[in-house]
Amino acid sequence: MEVKITVPESMMGDIISDLNTRRGRVLGMDTEGHKSVVTAHVPLAEMMRYGNDLRSMTGARGIYTMKFDHYETVPAHLTQNIIAANKAEQEA
């Protein structure tokens, strides 16, 4: 997903750090007035509860938009977990 996050300038470091933990790749950073806008590619699976997390991190002063950008191969270390979970679900 392509994600654009708008937050107060003072919170830019926290947002970039959080995106890195979500396997995101920061594409760019811009400034609009006293706000900073971060553009990044982040897997959809990592964005499921992002609205709540962003509200918590910014004290409800941050907003984001998300749109589909492209498909990408799942990293090998995550593939095995996904396959195992799917097999367990089918057996149940």
**How widely separated are the two ends?**
32 Å
**In which range does the helix fraction lie?**
25-40%
Q: Examine the secondary-structure arrangement and name the CATH architecture.
A: 2-Layer Sandwich
In spatial order, strands of the major sheet run 2-3-1-4
| Structural class estimated from helices and strands | alpha+beta
List the domain count as a whole number. Answer: 1
CATH first level: Alpha Beta
The major sheet is characterized as: 4 strands, antiparallel
**Tally of helical segments:** 3
Whole-angstrom Rg: 16 Å
CATH fold category name: Alpha-Beta Plaits
Q: Can you give the mean pLDDT? A: 92
User: What series of H and E elements makes up the topology?
Assistant: EHEEHEH
Low-confidence stretches: none
Strand percentage lies at: 25-35%
Q: What is the total tally of β strands?
A: 4
Q: Can you tell me the overall shape? A: elongated
